[in-house]
Amino acid sequence: xxxxxxxxxxxxxxxxxxxxxxxxxxxxxxxxxxxxxxxxxxxxxxxxxxxxxxxxxxxxxxxxxxxxxxxxxxxxxxxxxxxxxxxxxxxxxxxxxxxxxxxxxxxxxxxxxxxxxxxxxxxxxxxxxxxxxxxxxxxxxxxxxxxxxxxxxxxxxxxxxxxxxxxxxxxxxxxxxxxxxxxxxxxxxxxxxxxxxxxxxxxxxxxxxxxxxxxxxxxxxxxxxxxxxxxxxxxxxxxxxxxxxxxxxxxxxxxxxxxxx
Length: 261
Hints:
By secondary structure, the chain is mostly helical.
């Protein structure tokens, strides 16, 4: 699928969420989170919160198409970027906990796709004018991620065990930091925006390799985290459609509207 505007991105994600629910496919976990991010970004565009709403529509469309391309490549022949293959490759793994599925998707989309979408939207020197809006979209992303993370607690009663072994504190879960990755994404966007095609391809390859390494650390952590994850998984819901619905409604709950996470 290919989106032409942010409305297409929202519709495409909603379609993946619906189909995942019918098929009991865990791909719907991250798609539900991402749909809510996109809805929030669209509301911010319509509300005039960005310096350039039309530019942010293009930005979000490029960003969404990165996900759709990876999703389609995986469905077609198990190809696509390394970090997305790591994420999609665990969808049938019954031992992977809900929060891992979410973070694997967030890792690939932030550590690879976000910088690419920004550089494509504002190449060359134009990238610097994007900074304020880029930071604002990052704030929206972080807010939704935290709300959805918090809502996972209702589905994963022993999730607090990860805090006790130091794997889940604030924005940090396992070996993946949302905040740090958002900061690095801007640096990488500026880098990509100033490169020629050959340099850009090499840089994107390096970003993909790094994101794939982070994905493996998130998927298969060591130390005390591993047995803690096993306990967490033993109490989680196995009703995939219900989990998808719960995650897809996270931003509609009173706590989310009040900004409480």
